[in-house]
Design goal:
The chain is α+β, with helices and mostly antiparallel strands. It contains 7 helices and 18 strands. The strands form 4 sheets. A 7-stranded antiparallel beta sheet has the order 12-18-17-16-15-14-13, with helices on one face. The protein has a 4-stranded antiparallel beta sheet with strand order 2-3-4-9, with no helix packed on it. A hairpin with a 6-residue loop joins strand 6 and strand 7. The two termini are about 15 Å apart. The relative contact order is 0.13.
Length: about 350
Protein backbone atom coordinates (compact mmCIF):
# COMPACT_ATOMS: atom_id res chain seq x y z
CA UNK A 1 0.00 0.00 0.00
CA UNK A 2 1.15 3.55 -0.74
CA UNK A 3 1.71 5.94 2.12
CA UNK A 4 -0.60 8.94 2.23
CA UNK A 5 2.32 11.19 1.29
CA UNK A 6 3.28 9.12 -1.76
CA UNK A 7 -0.34 8.90 -2.86
CA UNK A 8 -0.78 12.67 -2.61
CA UNK A 9 2.33 13.22 -4.70
CA UNK A 10 1.08 10.89 -7.43
CA UNK A 11 -2.52 12.09 -7.76
CA UNK A 12 -2.05 15.88 -7.55
CA UNK A 13 -1.60 17.06 -11.14
CA UNK A 14 -2.04 20.85 -11.15
CA UNK A 15 0.60 23.32 -12.38
CA UNK A 16 3.73 23.21 -10.24
CA UNK A 17 3.08 19.79 -8.69
CA UNK A 18 5.66 17.04 -9.28
CA UNK A 19 3.24 14.78 -11.17
CA UNK A 20 1.71 17.70 -13.06
CA UNK A 21 5.17 18.76 -14.18
CA UNK A 22 5.99 15.22 -15.31
CA UNK A 23 2.71 14.83 -17.23
CA UNK A 24 3.42 18.06 -19.11
CA UNK A 25 6.53 16.50 -20.64
CA UNK A 26 4.34 14.22 -22.78
CA UNK A 27 1.87 14.77 -25.59
CA UNK A 28 -1.63 14.51 -24.10
CA UNK A 29 -4.66 13.21 -26.06
CA UNK A 30 -7.47 15.50 -24.96
CA UNK A 31 -10.34 15.21 -27.48
CA UNK A 32 -11.58 13.33 -30.54
CA UNK A 33 -11.33 15.17 -33.84
CA UNK A 34 -15.04 14.71 -34.52
CA UNK A 35 -15.90 16.83 -31.47
CA UNK A 36 -14.70 20.10 -33.02
CA UNK A 37 -16.10 21.30 -36.34
CA UNK A 38 -14.79 24.18 -38.43
CA UNK A 39 -16.52 27.39 -37.25
CA UNK A 40 -18.51 25.20 -34.84
CA UNK A 41 -19.31 25.34 -31.14
CA UNK A 42 -16.16 25.66 -28.97
CA UNK A 43 -15.67 22.64 -26.69
CA UNK A 44 -14.89 23.13 -23.00
CA UNK A 45 -11.88 21.06 -21.87
CA UNK A 46 -10.13 20.42 -18.55
CA UNK A 47 -6.64 18.90 -18.52
CA UNK A 48 -4.22 18.76 -15.59
CA UNK A 49 -6.39 21.15 -13.54
CA UNK A 50 -6.43 23.76 -16.34
CA UNK A 51 -9.73 24.96 -17.84
CA UNK A 52 -9.45 25.41 -21.59
CA UNK A 53 -11.51 25.68 -24.77
CA UNK A 54 -10.89 23.75 -28.00
CA UNK A 55 -12.07 25.00 -31.38
CA UNK A 56 -11.46 24.43 -35.09
CA UNK A 57 -11.08 27.57 -37.18
CA UNK A 58 -12.37 28.22 -40.68
CA UNK A 59 -9.20 26.73 -42.22
CA UNK A 60 -9.45 23.51 -40.21
CA UNK A 61 -6.73 24.29 -37.68
CA UNK A 62 -7.42 23.34 -34.06
CA UNK A 63 -6.75 25.69 -31.16
CA UNK A 64 -6.63 25.01 -27.42
CA UNK A 65 -6.86 28.26 -25.46
CA UNK A 66 -7.73 29.57 -22.02
CA UNK A 67 -11.40 29.29 -21.12
CA UNK A 68 -11.55 33.00 -20.14
CA UNK A 69 -10.90 36.04 -22.31
CA UNK A 70 -7.82 37.95 -21.02
CA UNK A 71 -9.77 41.22 -21.26
CA UNK A 72 -12.70 40.85 -18.86
CA UNK A 73 -12.78 37.10 -18.25
CA UNK A 74 -15.82 36.34 -20.40
CA UNK A 75 -16.27 32.59 -21.07
CA UNK A 76 -14.68 31.68 -24.38
CA UNK A 77 -17.01 28.70 -24.74
CA UNK A 78 -19.62 31.31 -25.75
CA UNK A 79 -17.26 33.00 -28.23
CA UNK A 80 -18.12 33.17 -31.93
CA UNK A 81 -15.95 30.84 -33.97
CA UNK A 82 -15.66 32.74 -37.25
CA UNK A 83 -13.24 33.93 -39.95
CA UNK A 84 -10.22 31.96 -38.70
CA UNK A 85 -10.51 33.00 -35.08
CA UNK A 86 -12.43 32.84 -31.82
CA UNK A 87 -14.19 36.15 -31.11
CA UNK A 88 -15.13 36.95 -27.51
CA UNK A 89 -18.85 37.68 -27.31
CA UNK A 90 -18.34 40.59 -24.85
CA UNK A 91 -16.13 43.14 -26.67
CA UNK A 92 -15.23 41.22 -29.82
CA UNK A 93 -11.56 40.57 -29.15
CA UNK A 94 -10.58 37.87 -31.64
CA UNK A 95 -7.87 35.25 -31.13
CA UNK A 96 -6.14 32.85 -33.50
CA UNK A 97 -5.31 29.22 -32.70
CA UNK A 98 -1.78 30.25 -31.59
CA UNK A 99 -3.21 32.67 -29.01
CA UNK A 100 -2.36 35.86 -30.86
CA UNK A 101 -4.94 38.64 -30.86
CA UNK A 102 -6.18 39.62 -34.32
CA UNK A 103 -8.84 42.27 -33.67
CA UNK A 104 -10.02 44.67 -30.95
CA UNK A 105 -13.07 46.41 -32.45
CA UNK A 106 -13.76 48.81 -29.56
CA UNK A 107 -10.16 49.93 -28.96
CA UNK A 108 -8.91 53.16 -30.64
CA UNK A 109 -5.36 51.79 -30.58
CA UNK A 110 -6.46 48.29 -31.41
CA UNK A 111 -3.65 47.42 -33.78
CA UNK A 112 -0.91 48.32 -31.29
CA UNK A 113 -2.63 46.55 -28.40
CA UNK A 114 -3.19 43.47 -30.54
CA UNK A 115 0.55 43.05 -30.81
CA UNK A 116 0.89 42.91 -27.01
CA UNK A 117 -2.14 40.87 -25.96
CA UNK A 118 -2.32 37.08 -26.11
CA UNK A 119 -4.58 34.42 -24.73
CA UNK A 120 -2.93 31.34 -23.23
CA UNK A 121 -2.70 28.71 -25.97
CA UNK A 122 -1.15 25.26 -26.28
CA UNK A 123 0.15 23.63 -29.48
CA UNK A 124 -2.18 20.99 -30.90
CA UNK A 125 -1.51 18.17 -33.35
CA UNK A 126 -4.06 15.89 -34.96
CA UNK A 127 -3.58 12.31 -36.05
CA UNK A 128 -6.12 9.66 -37.06
CA UNK A 129 -9.09 11.15 -35.25
CA UNK A 130 -7.37 12.25 -32.03
CA UNK A 131 -6.33 15.73 -30.89
CA UNK A 132 -3.10 15.98 -28.87
CA UNK A 133 -1.94 18.91 -26.72
CA UNK A 134 1.60 19.87 -25.75
CA UNK A 135 1.49 21.60 -22.35
CA UNK A 136 5.20 21.50 -21.58
CA UNK A 137 7.60 24.41 -21.38
CA UNK A 138 10.11 22.99 -23.87
CA UNK A 139 9.72 22.54 -27.61
CA UNK A 140 7.46 19.55 -28.31
CA UNK A 141 8.94 16.26 -29.53
CA UNK A 142 7.24 14.21 -32.28
CA UNK A 143 3.93 12.55 -31.42
CA UNK A 144 4.37 9.11 -29.86
CA UNK A 145 4.20 6.26 -32.38
CA UNK A 146 1.59 4.17 -30.60
CA UNK A 147 0.30 1.44 -32.90
CA UNK A 148 -3.42 2.18 -32.41
CA UNK A 149 -2.89 5.73 -33.65
CA UNK A 150 -0.94 4.65 -36.74
CA UNK A 151 -3.21 2.04 -38.32
CA UNK A 152 -5.87 3.10 -40.89
CA UNK A 153 -9.21 4.35 -39.58
CA UNK A 154 -11.05 1.16 -40.54
CA UNK A 155 -8.82 -0.82 -38.16
CA UNK A 156 -9.52 1.16 -34.98
CA UNK A 157 -12.46 2.19 -32.79
CA UNK A 158 -12.12 5.14 -30.41
CA UNK A 159 -14.27 6.43 -27.58
CA UNK A 160 -14.04 8.79 -24.63
CA UNK A 161 -15.74 8.97 -21.27
CA UNK A 162 -15.25 10.63 -17.89
CA UNK A 163 -14.54 8.66 -14.75
CA UNK A 164 -15.20 10.35 -11.42
CA UNK A 165 -11.99 9.19 -9.76
CA UNK A 166 -8.36 10.21 -9.98
CA UNK A 167 -6.20 8.95 -12.82
CA UNK A 168 -4.20 6.53 -10.66
CA UNK A 169 -7.32 4.76 -9.39
CA UNK A 170 -8.52 4.31 -12.96
CA UNK A 171 -5.15 3.09 -14.25
CA UNK A 172 -4.66 0.68 -11.35
CA UNK A 173 -7.92 -1.07 -12.21
CA UNK A 174 -6.72 -1.74 -15.74
CA UNK A 175 -3.46 -3.44 -14.78
CA UNK A 176 -5.06 -5.48 -11.97
CA UNK A 177 -5.76 -8.89 -13.50
CA UNK A 178 -7.02 -10.30 -10.18
CA UNK A 179 -10.33 -8.47 -10.39
CA UNK A 180 -11.28 -9.31 -13.99
CA UNK A 181 -13.15 -12.60 -13.67
CA UNK A 182 -14.82 -11.52 -10.41
CA UNK A 183 -16.01 -7.98 -11.10
CA UNK A 184 -16.74 -8.51 -14.79
CA UNK A 185 -18.26 -11.95 -14.34
CA UNK A 186 -21.60 -13.17 -13.02
CA UNK A 187 -22.61 -14.99 -9.87
CA UNK A 188 -24.02 -17.91 -11.84
CA UNK A 189 -22.07 -19.94 -14.40
CA UNK A 190 -23.53 -18.28 -17.48
CA UNK A 191 -22.05 -15.56 -19.66
CA UNK A 192 -18.99 -15.25 -21.87
CA UNK A 193 -16.81 -13.71 -19.17
CA UNK A 194 -17.30 -16.71 -16.91
CA UNK A 195 -15.70 -18.79 -19.66
CA UNK A 196 -12.50 -16.73 -19.53
CA UNK A 197 -9.46 -18.76 -18.55
CA UNK A 198 -8.88 -16.28 -15.74
CA UNK A 199 -11.99 -17.65 -14.02
CA UNK A 200 -10.29 -21.02 -13.54
CA UNK A 201 -7.87 -19.56 -10.98
CA UNK A 202 -8.90 -16.53 -8.91
CA UNK A 203 -5.53 -16.29 -7.12
CA UNK A 204 -2.98 -15.21 -9.76
CA UNK A 205 0.65 -14.66 -8.87
CA UNK A 206 2.04 -11.36 -10.15
CA UNK A 207 5.44 -10.69 -11.64
CA UNK A 208 6.48 -7.19 -12.73
CA UNK A 209 9.39 -6.10 -14.92
CA UNK A 210 10.35 -2.43 -15.09
CA UNK A 211 11.69 -1.12 -18.41
CA UNK A 212 12.57 2.28 -19.87
CA UNK A 213 9.01 3.07 -21.02
CA UNK A 214 7.04 1.61 -18.09
CA UNK A 215 6.25 -1.78 -16.56
CA UNK A 216 5.26 -5.27 -17.78
CA UNK A 217 2.68 -6.71 -15.33
CA UNK A 218 2.27 -10.49 -15.67
CA UNK A 219 -0.33 -12.59 -13.87
CA UNK A 220 0.35 -16.33 -13.67
CA UNK A 221 -2.54 -18.77 -13.17
CA UNK A 222 -2.87 -22.54 -13.02
CA UNK A 223 -5.59 -23.77 -15.38
CA UNK A 224 -6.52 -27.33 -16.37
CA UNK A 225 -5.40 -28.60 -19.76
CA UNK A 226 -7.02 -31.21 -22.03
CA UNK A 227 -5.49 -34.01 -19.95
CA UNK A 228 -6.96 -32.56 -16.76
CA UNK A 229 -3.56 -31.46 -15.47
CA UNK A 230 -2.63 -27.93 -14.59
CA UNK A 231 -0.63 -25.65 -16.84
CA UNK A 232 0.51 -22.07 -16.53
CA UNK A 233 -1.64 -19.39 -18.12
CA UNK A 234 0.10 -16.03 -18.20
CA UNK A 235 -1.42 -12.71 -19.20
CA UNK A 236 0.74 -9.60 -19.47
CA UNK A 237 -0.71 -6.11 -19.15
CA UNK A 238 1.38 -3.07 -19.97
CA UNK A 239 1.83 0.29 -18.31
CA UNK A 240 3.52 2.95 -20.45
CA UNK A 241 4.47 6.37 -19.14
CA UNK A 242 2.76 8.56 -18.27
CA UNK A 243 -0.82 7.16 -18.27
CA UNK A 244 -1.14 4.43 -20.92
CA UNK A 245 -2.27 0.85 -20.40
CA UNK A 246 -2.45 -2.03 -22.89
CA UNK A 247 -4.51 -5.19 -22.45
CA UNK A 248 -3.88 -8.57 -24.13
CA UNK A 249 -6.77 -9.95 -26.19
CA UNK A 250 -9.23 -12.63 -25.18
CA UNK A 251 -9.67 -15.73 -27.32
CA UNK A 252 -13.21 -14.63 -28.21
CA UNK A 253 -12.18 -11.05 -29.06
CA UNK A 254 -9.15 -10.80 -31.38
CA UNK A 255 -8.80 -7.01 -31.29
CA UNK A 256 -6.20 -5.33 -29.09
CA UNK A 257 -7.24 -2.63 -26.69
CA UNK A 258 -6.05 -0.17 -24.09
CA UNK A 259 -6.60 3.23 -22.53
CA UNK A 260 -5.13 6.61 -21.86
CA UNK A 261 -6.11 7.73 -18.35
CA UNK A 262 -5.71 11.48 -18.78
CA UNK A 263 -6.02 13.49 -15.56
CA UNK A 264 -8.64 16.22 -15.86
CA UNK A 265 -7.95 17.29 -12.29
CA UNK A 266 -7.25 15.59 -8.96
CA UNK A 267 -10.65 13.84 -8.87
CA UNK A 268 -11.70 13.27 -12.50
CA UNK A 269 -10.16 11.31 -15.36
CA UNK A 270 -10.71 11.54 -19.10
CA UNK A 271 -10.59 7.99 -20.44
CA UNK A 272 -9.63 7.48 -24.08
CA UNK A 273 -10.29 3.86 -25.07
CA UNK A 274 -8.95 2.33 -28.25
CA UNK A 275 -9.63 -1.07 -29.81
CA UNK A 276 -7.82 -2.01 -32.99
CA UNK A 277 -6.50 -4.76 -35.21
CA UNK A 278 -2.92 -4.28 -36.41
CA UNK A 279 -3.38 -5.85 -39.84
CA UNK A 280 -7.04 -5.93 -40.89
CA UNK A 281 -10.27 -3.92 -40.52
CA UNK A 282 -12.24 -4.34 -37.31
CA UNK A 283 -15.26 -6.59 -37.54
CA UNK A 284 -18.34 -4.50 -38.26
CA UNK A 285 -20.18 -6.42 -35.54
CA UNK A 286 -17.54 -5.29 -33.03
CA UNK A 287 -18.14 -1.66 -33.97
CA UNK A 288 -21.88 -2.10 -33.53
CA UNK A 289 -21.44 -3.71 -30.12
CA UNK A 290 -19.16 -0.88 -29.00
CA UNK A 291 -21.74 1.71 -30.06
CA UNK A 292 -24.95 -0.07 -29.02
CA UNK A 293 -23.92 -2.35 -26.18
CA UNK A 294 -24.72 -6.05 -26.11
CA UNK A 295 -28.17 -7.29 -25.04
CA UNK A 296 -28.62 -4.34 -22.72
CA UNK A 297 -25.14 -4.47 -21.23
CA UNK A 298 -22.33 -1.98 -21.73
CA UNK A 299 -19.10 -3.17 -23.32
CA UNK A 300 -15.63 -1.76 -22.76
CA UNK A 301 -16.58 1.23 -24.92
CA UNK A 302 -19.45 3.44 -23.68
CA UNK A 303 -22.54 2.99 -25.83
CA UNK A 304 -24.16 5.93 -27.59
CA UNK A 305 -27.03 5.89 -25.06
CA UNK A 306 -24.86 5.73 -21.93
CA UNK A 307 -24.14 9.44 -21.67
CA UNK A 308 -25.90 12.14 -19.69
CA UNK A 309 -25.52 15.45 -21.57
CA UNK A 310 -24.33 18.43 -19.56
CA UNK A 311 -24.38 22.19 -20.31
CA UNK A 312 -21.64 23.50 -22.60
CA UNK A 313 -20.07 25.35 -19.65
CA UNK A 314 -18.98 22.00 -18.17
CA UNK A 315 -15.83 20.26 -19.42
CA UNK A 316 -16.54 17.51 -21.95
CA UNK A 317 -20.32 18.02 -21.78
CA UNK A 318 -21.02 14.95 -23.97
CA UNK A 319 -18.90 12.44 -22.03
CA UNK A 320 -20.52 12.21 -18.59
CA UNK A 321 -22.00 8.78 -17.89
CA UNK A 322 -25.56 8.35 -16.69
CA UNK A 323 -24.24 5.41 -14.69
CA UNK A 324 -23.02 7.44 -11.73
CA UNK A 325 -23.33 7.70 -7.95
CA UNK A 326 -26.63 9.52 -8.10
CA UNK A 327 -28.19 6.73 -10.19
CA UNK A 328 -26.51 3.87 -8.33
CA UNK A 329 -24.74 2.99 -11.60
CA UNK A 330 -27.93 1.27 -12.75
CA UNK A 331 -27.25 -1.62 -10.38
CA UNK A 332 -30.09 -3.86 -9.19
CA UNK A 333 -28.94 -6.64 -6.88
CA UNK A 334 -32.07 -8.88 -7.02
CA UNK A 335 -31.60 -9.45 -10.73
CA UNK A 336 -27.81 -9.58 -10.97
CA UNK A 337 -28.00 -13.24 -12.04
CA UNK A 338 -31.12 -12.84 -14.16
CA UNK A 339 -30.48 -13.79 -17.77
CA UNK A 340 -33.86 -12.56 -19.00
CA UNK A 341 -34.10 -9.64 -21.40
CA UNK A 342 -35.27 -7.43 -18.54
CA UNK A 343 -32.41 -8.51 -16.35
CA UNK A 344 -29.82 -7.87 -19.02
CA UNK A 345 -31.32 -4.49 -19.78
CA UNK A 346 -31.40 -3.27 -16.17
CA UNK A 347 -28.25 -4.83 -14.80
CA UNK A 348 -25.75 -2.49 -16.47
CA UNK A 349 -22.07 -2.86 -15.95
CA UNK A 350 -20.90 -0.80 -12.99
CA UNK A 351 -17.23 -1.75 -13.05
CA UNK A 352 -16.01 1.36 -14.88
CA UNK A 353 -17.13 3.56 -12.01
CA UNK A 354 -16.77 1.31 -8.99
CA UNK A 355 -13.56 3.06 -7.90
CA UNK A 356 -15.41 6.36 -7.57
CA UNK A 357 -16.55 5.24 -4.15
CA UNK A 358 -12.95 5.49 -2.94
CA UNK A 359 -12.71 9.26 -3.48
Amino acid sequence: MLSREDNEQLVRVGPGTPMGTLMRQYWIPFLLSRDVLADGQPHRVRVLCEDLVAFRDSSGRVGLVDHACPHRGAPMVFARNEDDGLRCMYHGWKFAVDGSCKQMPAEPNGERMCQRVRIKAYPVQERHGVLWAWMGSDSPPPLPDLEWNLVPDEQVALSMRIQECNWLQALEGEIDSAHAAILHGRVDAAGTINQWRQAADLMPAFECVVHDAGVHIASRRKVPDAQGQGQDYIRVNQFLLPFWTLVPPQKQFPELSGHAWVPMDDEHTLCLMFSYHPSQPLYEKSRQVFKQGHKGRETGHPSDTSFEPRPVMQPYPHYWSRFNRATGYGFDKPIDTNDTAEGRQRNRRVEFHILEQNN
